[in-house]
Amino acid sequence: MNTKDIVYIALFAALTAVLGLFPPLTLPVTGVPVTAQSLGPMLAGAILGARRGGLSIVLFLVLVAVGLPLLSGGRGGFGVMIGVTGGFIFGWAISAFVIGLLIEHFWNDLTVIKATLAIGFGGIVVLYALGNAWVAVAADISYWQATVGAAPFLIGDAIKVAIAVAACLAVRRSYPLISKAR
Amino acid sequence: MIAGLYIDGTSPLHRAGAGIKILAMIALGTGVFLIPDWPVVTVILATVLAFYPLCGFGPSVIWAQVKPIFWLLSIFFAVQLWLNDWQAGLLVVTRIAAIVLFASLVTLTTKTSAMLASLERAMGPLRPLGVNPEKVSLAISMVLRFIPVIATVASEIRDAQRARGLDKSILAMVVPLIIRTLKMADDVADAIEARSFDPDETAS
Predict the structure, then answer these.
(1) Under an 8 A CB cutoff, do A63 and B193 touch?
(2) Are A50 and A106 in contact (CB under 8 A)?
(3) Residue B204: what pLDDT?
(4) Is the pLDDT of residue B168 over 80?
(5) A34 touches chain B (CB under 8 A)
(6) Per-residue pLDDT tens for A149-169?
(7) Does B24 contact chain A (CB < 8 Å)?
(8) How far apart are CA A167 and CA A159, in angstroms?
C-alpha cells in the first residue's frame, strides 16, 4: 500500500464524515429519515475498490468508536455502535468491501445495470442481512420481523444506490482509480 | 479540530485506563446476553445508572444517551408484549439500555486522545499480520485534518450549484465533491512523499 492509497483511504473516511453533516431528508408518508451518510460506504467501495474502500470505512468507524461525533446527527461513541442499529453501522465496512469487489470484477465493461447490481447487492442485500440479524438478536425478535421493520428504510437506500451508481459511472469516466489488472 | 464527546471530570471512572473500560464494556455487553433473566439485568442497569451521578453527570446527560434509542425501545417493548409477555419486553429493553448507557459512559469519561493511544498500543501485536501503526496514525490524523477542509469544499460546491439552479440535485453535489476530494488526495500524497515519508519503512 503506497502513500496515495493511505491518502485516498483517509480522505474518503473524511468524506463519509462530511456526508453526515448534510441535513437528513424526511420521506413523505412514512416519516423515515434519510441521511446522506450511508452514501459514504457505497461511494468508497465503488470508487476506491474493495481494499481501500473497505479500509476507509473501517477507519471512519474507528474514529466514531473512539468518541468523535461523526455519525449523522452528531452521534458517536461506543453506545451508538453497539446499540440496536449497530449491525448497520459495522455492516458499512463489509458493504463497502463487497461493492468494491463487484465493481472491480465488472470494471472493464461497467454498465448502469452492472453497477446497479454491484452497489444494490453490497449496499442493500449485504447491509440489511447483517443489520437485521443484529436487530433480531438485540430485540429478541425473529429475523423475518426485523426485516419487515427495516422495510421502510429501503426507499431511501434505493435512492442512494441510484445516486451512487450515477456518481460511480461519472467518476469512472473522469477520474478512474480502479484498474482490473491485479 | 473536532471536539470529542468527552465530558471532563475527576471520578474514578475518568481516571481508569481506556483499555480497562473497553474490556469492561465488552464483558458487560456479553454478560447481559448470557443472562436471560430480567431482574438480574435490571440490577445491572441500575448499577450502570448509579455510575452517572458518581461521574458527575446529571439526569440531562442520561436522557441525552437514551433519547436517540427511546422510540426504538418503545417499539421493541410493544412487539415483545404482543408476541410474548411483559417480562420478555422488560428484558429486551433493560438489556439494550444497560449496554448503551455503559458504552456511553465509557465514551463520556475517556478522552479521544487516550482512546487513540490505547488503540495504537493494541495495534502493536498486529504488526506481523500486516497492520502498520505508523500508517494508521498518519491516516487518522489526516481524517481529522481533512473533515473541515472537505466540509468547506462541500459548502462551496453547494453555493456554486445553487447559482446554477441545481441545489436540489444531490448528484450535482456529490460528483464534484468526489472529484475535488480525489484531486486533493493526489496533491496531499505528493506533499507527503516530498517530505520523505516512506510507508514501507519499518519503525526503528
Answers:
(1) no
(2) no
(3) 42
(4) no
(5) no
(6) 888 889 889 999 999 999 999
(7) no
(8) 12
CB contact under 8 Å between A17 and B115, yes or no, is no
What is the pTM assigned to this prediction? 0.85
Read off the pLDDT of residues A57-85 as tens digits, 9 standing for 90 and up.
Answer: 999 999 998 878 888 877 888 888 888 88
Q: Which amino acid is at B39?
A: P
The tally of domains found in chain A comes to 1
- As given in the structure block, the three cell numbers for residue B167 are 441545489
Q: Hey, is the C-beta of A170 within 8 angstroms of any chain B C-beta?
A: yes
Q: Is B136 exposed, middle or buried (0-12, 13-18, 19+ CB in 10 A)?
A: buried
Beta strands in A15-97 (DSSP E): 25-26, 33-34
Flag whether residue A61 sits within 8 Å of chain B, measured between CB atoms: no
User: Does residue A117 belong to any structural domain of this protein?
Assistant: yes
Q: Which domain holds residue A74?
A: 3-174
CATH of the domain at A21: 1.10.1760.20
How far B80 CA sits from the closest chain A CA (Å)? Answer: 8
How far apart, in Å, are the Cα atoms of B15 and each of B22, B27, B114?
A: 14, 19, 11
**What is the residue whose three cell numbers read 473497505?**
A54
Three-state DSSP string of A118-142:
HHHHHHHHHHHHHHHHHHHHHHCCC
